[in-house]
Every structure is written in structure tokens, then in C-alpha cells.
Amino acid sequence: MNVSTDHSCVPNICGTEDRLCLKIKQYRAPCARIKVKALPPELVLRRALRAIYHTGYRLNWKKAPGSPDICFVGKKVAIFVNGCFWHRCPKCDLPLPKTHVDYWSAKFERNTERDRCSEESLRAAGWTVITVWECEVKNNPKDVAEKISIVLNH
Asked: Of the candidates 65, 62, 59, which has an alpha carbon nearest to the alpha carbon of residue 115?
């Protein structure tokens, strides 16, 4: 089933907006104001990076395409800390939610497409892109920080 990604409301015959469309607008308005910047996996990774003396990074740097979670601007290294559920981790292979499958399929597809576009834009601008998965950070943050360190010291 093809799900439209255009959620603009078109007045119906009576000149009023569709009820579902109004509910979407009511839901999105408060959600759009929530700016989560430091989730636990990202905090753990930053702590591990500081432990091996890699400081001087910027968080969610807006001047880089896709605003990477951690940015070493001088070295042009962008790090994305992706949640396994929202970004569809290939290692975890989590199942789709059982309800509203069409909505969730489209949502996850948009997320992965946005991730891919951000990576391509950064690479085209000469950046090194590192994608770290939540499960990797949870299991062994020290190893993840060491791998990033190798890239930074190269």
C-alpha cells in the first residue's frame, strides 16, 4: 500500500479540514517543539570519548548537513549515534510494530532515506561519516570510542 508523505490539509467540500488531518496537526505542534539532543547512548559515547582525551567536538552542529550528533569540525568527522528502533539497525533486525504497519513502514523508510541523504551530503563536502548504533554503544562504549579515535588520529 502506498502511503502519501504529504500531510498538507486540503479543505473538503464543506470547506473544513478533515478530522484526521486536524489530529495530525494537533499532535505535531507540541512534538515539533521538543528538541532532544542528548539521549543515553550519545551521553555514554561522549563520556567514552572524553575518557580517551577526544574533546573539542560540537553537538548537533547545524552548519553540517543532517546536523550530526557529534562533530569534530576541524578534522571534518561527523558521528551519528542512531537508535536501533528508529533508524532500523541491521544488527538488531527489530520487528515492525503490529499496529498501523503502513504508517510505521513509511516512517522508518523516511528516516533511513534522510540518514542516507545526510551521509551523502557530508561525504560530498569532504567529511568522514561514522554511524554508531545504540546497541554497539550499550554493549561496549570503549571499543566504539577506540574505533572513532583511530579515525580521528589518522
From this structure: 65
| Calpha distance 59→64 (Å, rounded) | 11
SS3 71: strand
- DSSP designation for 96: P
CB 141 within 8 A of CB 45: yes
Interval 4-51: pLDDT, tens: 344 443 344 444 455 555 555 665 666 556 566 678 999 999 999 999
DSSP designation for 24: H
State if pTM tops 0.70: yes
Q: 37-153 domain in CATH 3.40.960.10? A: yes
Q: Where are the domains of the chain?
A: 7-36, 37-153
Cell of 53: 582525551
Given a contact cutoff of 8 angstroms between Cβ atoms, the answer to whether 12 and 54 are in contact is no
d(CA 11, CA 124): 41
* Cell 551530503 belongs to residue: 121
